Amino acid sequence: PPGRPGQLTMKRPSAAEPGINTVAKLYNTFSGFTGDPFQDEKFDFKKEAFKYVWSMFPVIQRVKKYRPTDAVHDFIAGLTVGVMVVPQALAYSHLATLPLQYGLYAAFSGVFIYCLFGTSHVVTLGPTAVLSLMVASHSGPENSPNHIHNALMLSFFAGIIQLALGLFRLGVAVQIIPQPVICGFTTAASLVISTTQVKHLLGIKYAHDGKPIRRKFIYCWIDTISGIDKIEWGDLILGTICIIILMAMRQLGKYHPVLKYLALARNAIMVTVCALLCGLIPYLQHHVKLTGKVEPGFPHPLVPKITTADFKNLGVPSVIVALIAFLECYAVGKAFCRLPNAESDVIANQEFVAIGACNIVGSFFRAYPVTGSFSRTSVNAQSGVHTPFGGLITGGIVIAALCFATPAFKWIPKATLSAIIITSVLHLFDYKAMKRYWYVSKIDLFLMLVTFTGVLLINITDGILIGTGVSLVIICWRLLRPITKMSSYDLSTSRDVVVIAVQQYLTYMATETLQRRLTSLELEARRQSCALQRIVFDFTRVTNIDVGCAEGLLESQRQFGKLGINICFAAASEGVKDTLERIYMYDTPEEESSNTIALQFYGTVEECLEMAMATSVKRSVQAKSPTLEAGSGDGPSP
Q1: Residues 425 and 185: beta-carbon distance below 8 Å
Q2: 3-state secondary structure of 563
Q3: Which residue, 542, 550, 561, is CA-closest to 587?
Q4: Are β-strands 534-538 and 566-570 bridged in parallel, bridged antiparallel, or unpaired?
Q5: Residues 87, 103: contact at Cβ < 8 Å?
Q6: Measured between alpha carbons, how far is 387 from 383 in angstroms, rounded to an integer?
Q7: What pLDDT is stored for residue 154 in this prediction?
Q8: In this predicted model, which residue has the larger pLDDT, 192 or 334?
Q9: Which of 114, 371, 393, 480 is 20 to 30 A from 217, alpha carbon to alpha carbon?
Q10: How do 490-494 and 497-501 pair as beta strands?
Q11: Residues 6+ away with beta carbon under 8 Å from 469
Q12: 394 with 122: CB under 8 angstroms?
């Protein structure tokens, strides 16, 4: 709507009949349309429906813009990742207690489908250590007749949940799991994964009483120690040597470009060398446990057979797998979309659609759940990939390995696969997060430790549910405090300043909403040719802010600072100021502090407006007086 010159205005839905307005809000939620379909005369339902369906297939836009140079970069990156993914897929299927070929099935199905639906050009989908551990935990005993069936059903059900959340634009649901819970889960998972592989390094299959070694963290150590008299020295020596060499190759890759490429292929080199040694030396065949025969060939599509027991046994685990898989993939995509050569941002709802489609289609090709792999995505980015089409080359290499290389896989030692798994999950143990939460927020550290303990002592699903439950209890406890609930943002404009009055305490759930509002504000200012110089957050009623939201606000401050727009804070309480300052000091190295925009706090909004007006007047005087000295203007006061 028209307003005074220089005034920022926002389009708000007009007051309508309650029932009609509710339907309009639901439609906007699902379709992403910003208008009112019942009052906007220009609204075209068919056009909006077509745009909604069109947005489901990012591949169409990529094909239109695809160039020969993109094909070269994608081929090189796909080849590099393909060499890396084959040994990892074998190792992760070993971790999931499935036949080795199932890891390869998951490796090729994910990359093919993601090319059609994925929004990130760099993410590589496939089996990961965390999801493999969850499959092993929820698919039943390794020798049970339903073990493989449960793993495939887990993929199918998780895919259905992910696809539904994406189609109905409910990606916000994943924000119910806070960052400290995720950190506690991944840190504990690294210990659980490593513990499950100790028995293979020692060559121990049974406990002292002759029963199979249990999977739970404590019981696994008890059973392993009780069967220490059955240790196989060949497995122990080979596994220890493999771990030392793999860690050494990883470190050597930092010192020379040639060693860098050897480090990227270290898993493939290790598997190849060990398989050759076991195939050529009869002594090793009798003193080292081998993986055995692997089923060759491309998997024939099979329709999953769903039973009533599947819903009962796999219902809750499927929800947890669906959310964890999305969080892992979304975090990887977000980390690499900030790179200078990143072409687009990662869209949460569309990523739900992409991962859900990958898991649903993959279950028909006997693949267990997949998600984005940080290690393979990192290699993909370093190799210069331009589009997800590099995954076609990666998938082709995996299929070639299935068709032609499976006879050689039977010579791969189990100790070598365990060594690959252990060295791959070392980075998951996030001890720095504990130190950071101790410095910034004891409540978030408590959440992390609760989840960490629950995953270690009980199981993965219960540990995550306990951590999330405690988080909700803390939020409810804060809601019971006498704090006015945030219902909207009150925007006011004074020359080139926008004031956002927040009516509630801030948590990690509000981070994305605030960032979207800031982005839309900047775009609106640009559309109306308004000289937006400053955004003021009025924290009069904000009594608390957690680490996740503080990180998001400071990230926005740095990004908007590069655009010449200052973000400052008015009437912030001591607790809010302390959290923001601690995050700022912790994340800003001392040598970079001079190049970073400082935090700006004001006692009141009026004080900030007076400072902004004085600065604006001084700039106007400088613009009209070219003889004025260049260094005479002063910037905003912190």
Answers
A1: no
A2: coil
A3: 550
A4: parallel
A5: no
A6: 12
A7: 92
A8: 192
A9: 371
A10: antiparallel
A11: none
A12: no
Q: Using 50, 70 and 90 to split pLDDT, how confident is the model at 22?
A: very low
How many Å apart are CA 93 and CA 18, to the nearest integer? 54
Q: Which residue has the higher pLDDT, 498 or 360?
A: 360
Question: What value does the mean pLDDT of the chain take?
Answer: 77
Q: What is the mean pLDDT of residues 53-76?
A: 84
Q: What is the pLDDT of residues 507-520, one digit of tens each?
A: 676 777 777 777 77
| Residue 233 CB neighbour total at 10 angstroms | 11
Show Cβ contacts of residue 428 under 8 Å, excluding neighbours closer than 6 positions: 129, 130, 186, 187, 189, 190, 193
Q: Which pLDDT tens digit goes with each residue over 250-268?
A: 887 777 777 777 777 788 8
Q: Taking every pair of C-alpha atoms in the chain, what is the biggest distance, in angstroms?
A: 92
Cα separation, 349 vs 326, whole angstroms: 10
Write out the DSSP string of 507-559.
-GGGHHHHHHHHHHHHHHHHHTT----EEEEE-TT---B-HHHHHHHHHHHHH
How much is the average pLDDT of 133-149?
84
Report DSSP state, residue 366: T
Q: How far is CA 149 from CA 29, 135, 140, 216, in A?
A: 36, 11, 10, 22
Distance (Å) of CA 153 to CA 110, 113, 145, 489:
16, 18, 14, 45
Whole-angstrom distance, CA of residue 616 vs CA of residue 610 = 10
Indicate the helix (H) or strand (E) that contains 498: strand 497-501
The Cα–Cα gap between 200 and 194 comes to 10
Torsion sign across C-alpha atoms 53, 56, 61, 64:
negative
Choice among 144-153, 237-246, 442-451, 470-479 with the minimum mean pLDDT: 470-479
Token duo for residue 483: 């704090």
Exposure of 396 in the CB half-sphere (CA atoms within 13 A): 11
User: Residue 200 and residue 417: Cα distance in Å, rounded?
Assistant: 9
For CA atoms 187, 193, 196, 198, the dihedral sign is negative
Distance CA(58)–CA(46), nearest Å, equals 20
- Greater model confidence, 617 or 12: 617
Selected residue with higher pLDDT from 80 and 20? 80
Given CA atoms 117, 120, 124, 127 in this order, what sign does their dihedral have? Answer: negative
pLDDT at position 44, please?
A: 66
Contact 471, 460 (CB under 8 A): no
Cα–Cα dist 201/232, whole Å = 9
Distances (CA, A) of 636 to 174, 236, 486, 565, 583: 38, 64, 29, 11, 21
pLDDT of residue 31: 46
Asked if pLDDT for residue 369 goes beyond 90, the answer is: yes
